[in-house]
Amino acid sequence: MKKLIDPHGRHIHKLRLGLLDACNFRCVYCMPQNPKFMEKSKLLKREEIFRLSKALVKFGIDEIRLTGGEPTLRSDFLNIVRDLSELSLSKFGFTTNGLNIDKLLPELKSTKIKNINFSLDSLNKVGFHKMTGSSQLEKVLEAIFMAKELGFNVKLNAVLMKGINDREVNDFLDFSASYDIEVRFLELMRIGEARESFDKYFISAGEIIKRLEAKAVLAPVKRPVDSTSFNYELKNGAQVGFIASESRPFCGGCSRLRLSPEGSLRPCLMKSEGYSLVGKTEDEILELLYKTMALKPTDRIYEVSESMNIIGG
Ligand code: SAM
Ligand code: SF4
Hints:
Blueprint (H helix, E strand, L loop, with lengths): L13 E5 L27 H13 L4 E5 L9 H8 L6 E6 L8 H4 L6 E5 L5 H8 L4 H13 L3 E8 L8 H11 L2 E6 L10 H4 L3 H9 L5 E3 L8 E4 L5 E5 L12 E4 L4 E3 L8 E2 L5 H13 L13 H4 L2
Helix pairs in contact: 1-2
The structure holds S-adenosylmethionine and iron/sulfur cluster.
């Protein structure tokens, strides 16, 4: 199969697939507190998700991560996963807030999904509520442990906000060491809701690393060239990654495209343009794939007004 290479020589092979924009959390950095979600009729149907994904895989995509909004809120989530399990993928995963997935996990075991990224911004109830608007920390933690026990590759993602949860970094590292789970700290990004209070809450990966280095030795871990994170291991076994999208953008090695919940193929998280693939033939999809790749920026775009849940984070 011919590799998908964009005009700047980047090998494009990963797809973020947004299943819906709705969510049962209200993370302060992600969406407005009273959001208006898309009409269900606008969302891609299960059959169209499969048809478009199959075509994109035929043309060179080999990794898919489901996202949203909260992807597990789709009532046909399991069926979508089962459909996509038929595709030839080297990696298949999803990103979740973990709230309602306990019942799904045993069923997911019999699919090709292997990788689950849980968003977990705080390990204490007060902080968790402040960040997500939810008081269900315990339930999320139980789901994380269950996923780990069932043998999924589990990672935690925490968006760090100065003065809100940045003092929890060491707790997360202890958690990582105790449960053998990689924790990745995400820099707050200038996206949608987060733009207004960005300067107040942003803390760079460099600042966190400086704090950590004052107390512990961080041994760098080798990662693939198109990895969005740079990683370290600590003596106690903690595995920590940093996704420093603002201070250390990774556009030069980006290998990703996005399919939005209503079926628009988009070149970048930070770009609102894209081409709708809905109802298109395979030949048309291939043409639009190249047109979309041509839109991929080489440098970090400063900000985007759309909220993360709409773009599909
Ligand atoms: N609901 C799922 C979840 O929370 O994992 C999937 C969708 S969520 C939009 C995907 C990821 O985007 C989460 O890890 C979330 O923390 C991150 N995110 C959302 N808004 C962000 C922002 N302004 N800056 C950095 N990360 C953000
Ligand atoms: Fe929902 Fe995920 Fe956004 Fe939080 S980050 S509001 S869980 S979509």
